[in-house]
């Protein structure tokens, strides 16, 4: 019996030992896992402090680097501003010494460039002052309170971490207590179950076992109560630890970082905004200055600069007085004479000069055209757009090789043109004088003082058209007008051979005066209305005799036509409207519409007062218009025609421009 009880007791203790060992293993594994988690949390908290320290170092380094950058930038800007100021002052002093013309467009561009340079200097000087003084001090203050706030934030973070570690320690303690009491509860409960099993097997010791069971029952209940309390403490600490972790990681860390960054971004932003504002101001000044420079550049004018140069040095470049004719010992002849035996010699010389003038003029025009093409080609080579700058750089090498040759060719053309045009000017002067002299000689030899076309048309209208309504106003047939013009140019008198339409004949007469290269009257007469007749008489009296004779003849005829205005509807003013544009013309820069009323009024006055304006036959001998119709002249030699000597320098018809000459093949 005793052996059975001893065997049973040994087996029971072995089972208890195994249970305790298993329980200790479970406790050890759980504790190891918990310790690992807590160790990881501790390491993470230490790393967080390191990150905050690193962040402070980065911010401090950024502020220091920015301050160093602004300080160095201020030094560079100051040095650059001084260099720009010296550059502008250097060339400005040169300009003051040379005192260039302020009217020159190149000088205006140069002054605008120097003004822009001085403005750049002021802008860079202001930027230097801002970088060196106004912007560095806020950065120093920002660095100071950033470090101070970071230290305070770190202290608070350390306190929060200590509290978090304390919570984890309490959690670990509650967990161990809970495990310990739970283990004791398991052990007491096991003993109670063993005692209950023994009670079933050993009924003879029922009282003793009953007391044992009651004792163990009380112990189990006591340990179970302690285990429940320990579990409750553990669960409470577990919830507190989890909430503390959540709050720390999701709220406290962000709050601490924000506290450490308070004012950092704002201060840095204000500094950069001030820097940016200064740069924008400089940029706007630069844009304005560049626009002004562009406007000045667009006003570059070579012709205006040339005129300004000539105006500034008027005494140097003004043309001296004309060489006046100085006769010897009372000689009264002041023009080239082609009378007598000299006429043939002058005619030969005139033809030679005419041929030479034509050839030299052609050569000069060709040289002028070549020079213009070379100048245009040179300008096109220089005008390369920015987007083609690389192709231009590649082109420069080849261009330089031909540049010297092109310059030589261009200036050769310029020299040839200037020499040729000078020769043309000299030949033209001789040509004009010889032409006047030769044609005057022919006129005096032939006795024909009125051009054939004028005399023939007036004679035809006098005989047939004084009563024709709308004479000179109604246009004639253009075909007949061209036919009559060609016939007169060939030296004939078609109106003496057959009948033509009156309006066509009147159109030929108007066409003759309209196609004169220079009009009969210079336009300057039309600009004065006071005492118009007296002024016209004074001006006309200065004309050569052949011109006065033709004008007197024409206006006497027009006055005669106006006397039949009841029938032909051509009052003096209507005739002035028809003949005014043919007899007087404005300059190229004047508005013909504005001048037309003055021209009409002048011609009207001459028609009405022609007897008071033109000298009589006693003063100027020559053909006079007769109101009585005459018969056609007898057979005679080919009539003379009218030729006009061009004068490019005159605004009106030169008094010597209207002269007579025989047609080709005519005889004196």
Automatic annotation (TrEMBL):
Q: Which SUPFAM superfamilies match?
A: BAR/IMD domain-like (SSF103657), GTPase activation domain, GAP (SSF48350)
Q: F-BAR domain spans which residues?
A: 33-305
The Rho-GAP domain sits at 436-614
Keyword annotations? Coiled coil
Entry coiled-coil feature ranges: 185-226
One GO biological process term is:
signal transduction
Please name one Pfam family that this protein belongs to: RhoGAP
- Protein name (Swiss-Prot/TrEMBL): Rho GTPase activating protein 4a
Source species: Gouania willdenowi
